[in-house]
Structure prediction request, 177 residues.
Amino acid sequence: MKYKALPFLVFILFLISPAIITAEVHKEIVPVDQVEFKPLYSYSSPVIIVEQDKPEPTKPIINIPDSSVIEVPRATPKPKVSTSGFKLDRNVSWYGPGFYGRRTACGQKYTKSILGVAHKTLPCGTLVTFMWKGIVKTVPVIDRGPYVAGRQWDLSGGLCVALHHCFTGKIYYRVGK
Prediction:
């Protein structure tokens, strides 16, 4: 066997590892007041590193002048959009590749940028509003489908991009504006 000696070697390393660790620990320890502080890199930033031979406890090692303090603006939160009046559908998909250039059931040319939705029974042109993570889009029914059991809506390729919902999953919707 090729690796019969491996457990034995691991055991030997386990036994001698305290000796290796203690050998590293017994190096000379230099007090902090004898260490010379120098910047490792030169950045053009507002932080200034002060070189001192022997820093005193009352003097800071890093000085930040008041004029160089930069205030970072807080991110503005997205406005919360109410889901009241919307229904949740947990199984919405999208369709696109393979259908581009064909005619929809409602007579339009299906393109990558068309905003619409496919539904099995709603009349062509019925407006449906979709909402996903604060983005709201109102689009017409332009095609028939989806032809997968349990699915009610198929978003067009353009609508999935506009809503950032190019996957099968949940989305809020309401029929009408």
Observations:
- Residues 61 and 126 are 69 Å apart (CA to CA).
- The radius of gyration is 33 Å.
- The chain has two helices and eight strands.
